[in-house]
Write a structure and sequence with these properties.
Elements: E1 3-9, H1 16-29, E2 34-41, H2 47-57, E3 61-66, H3 72-82, E4 87-90, H4 102-111
Parallel strand pairs: 1-2, 1-4, 2-3
């Protein structure tokens, strides 16, 4: 598998479908094999329900759920322990990181 994208989140229900669709579009455009690992760090909204729905629709989506907030570093650690991609990229769930940058990062890591 080319890429694992690890996304820690807390109460990001509204942005998750858009982020998922954007990542999938970029992955398909560049023919990457991939997995998306969402780590729900104790959300009190319906983020986990959204992750479960996305994983039903897309087998490349996986999730880890913390029942309380442990912080971003613990969420990332849990994600890193589970992913299987040759290259691991982290993103924020709030749409501030552009999935369009993933191919350049992947090429930089693998070729430079």
């Amino acid at each position: 598998m080319n890429l694992s994208i690890v996304i820690p989140l807390l109460n990001e229900q509204e942005s998750l479908p858009e982020l998922h669709d954007w990542i999938v579009k970029v992955m398909h455009m560049h023919n990457f094999s991939y997995e998306i690992m969402f780590i729900d760090d104790g959300s009190t909204d319906a983020s986990w329900d959204t992750i479960e729905q996305l994983s039903k629709e897309n087998p490349n989506v996986k999730g880890i759920r913390f029942l309380r907030n442990y912080g971003k570093s613990q969420a990332l650690h849990a994600g890193f322990a589970k992913v299987k991609g040759d290259v691991v990229i982290t993103m924020d769930a709030d749409l501030q990181d552009s999935p369009e940058e993933i191919p350049d990062m992947y090429n930089m890591i693998t070729n430079e």
